[in-house]
């Protein structure tokens, strides 16, 4: 028999852990968005060495499991004298992983902007940084929002991997309570419910942002 009343007294701890999950996800998303933009600009750069570095980075990150990347950051860096907290290690691993995928999203958005706009801006004497900032990137962000939203939701779910490096997020706390109370179905179902609520909220917010951007475009 399932006994969900057992979960009730642990709910405050699970809510607190869910807040840690949201914090971890949001910071990682910001890291991914910023670093992903840098990688995307390197990827499309006319400077070949920068383009090659970006391509190599994307190839490495997309071709290896995120769990391996997380373990390399958390367990590997201390071997060379760099010790980071579990939370920071998770942010770096999640953010750098997402950056590879976000870079390709940005690149697709940049390439979707008609090349004539770049040529027209150059003919008016605008420099490359100003063209990207005022003309190309605003349009890129507008068309990239749906894909970036999907990536953000994926990162929220992938944040559960941080439990393996002792971050007290939702999955780790759920595992601990499930094991000590021998109520695996109950705690894991409640944890799934938390994730479902959080991803639904993320999706709703992103949908509103997408609607706002589509209205401003008109």
TrEMBL record:
InterPro entries: AA_ABC_transptr_permease_3TM, ArtM/GltK/GlnP/TcyL/YhdX-like, MetI-like, MetI-like_sf. It is a multi-pass membrane protein. Signal peptide: none annotated. Its main location: membrane. Residues 18-206 form the ABC transmembrane type-1 domain. Keywords: Amino-acid transport, Cell membrane, Membrane, Transmembrane, Transmembrane helix, Transport. It holds the Pfam family BPD_transp_1. The keyword Transmembrane helix applies. The chain crosses the membrane at residues 20-44, 56-75, 87-106, 185-206. It is found in: Cell membrane. Belongs to the binding-protein-dependent transport system permease family. This is Amino acid ABC transporter permease. It comes from Neobacillus pocheonensis.
């Amino acid at each position: 028999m399932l006994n969900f009343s057992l979960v009730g007294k642990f709910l405050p701890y699970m809510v607190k852990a869910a807040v840690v999950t949201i914090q971890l996800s949001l910071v990682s998303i910001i890291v991914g968005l910023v670093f992903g933009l840098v990688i995307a600009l390197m990827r499309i750069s006319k400077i070949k060495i920068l383009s090659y570095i970006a391509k190599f980075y994307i190839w490495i990150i997309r071709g290896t499991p995120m769990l391996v990347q997380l373990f390399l950051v958390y367990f590997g860096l201390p071997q060379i004298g760099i010790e980071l907290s579990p939370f920071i290690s998770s942010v770096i691993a999640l953010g750098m992983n997402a950056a590879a995928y976000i870079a390709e999203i940005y690149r697709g958005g940049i390439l979707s902007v008609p090349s004539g706009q770049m040529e027209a801006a150059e003919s008016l004497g605008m420099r490359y940084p100003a063209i990207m900032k005022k003309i190309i990137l605003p349009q890129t962000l507008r068309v990239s929002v749906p894909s970036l939203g999907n990536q953000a939701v994926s990162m929220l779910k992938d944040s559960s991997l941080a439990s393996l490096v002792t971050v007290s997020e939702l999955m780790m706390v759920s595992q601990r309570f499930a094991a000590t109370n021998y109520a695996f179905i109950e705690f894991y179902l409640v944890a799934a419910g938390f994730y479902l609520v959080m991803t639904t909220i993320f999706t709703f917010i992103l949908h509103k942002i997408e609607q706002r951007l589509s209205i401003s475009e008109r």
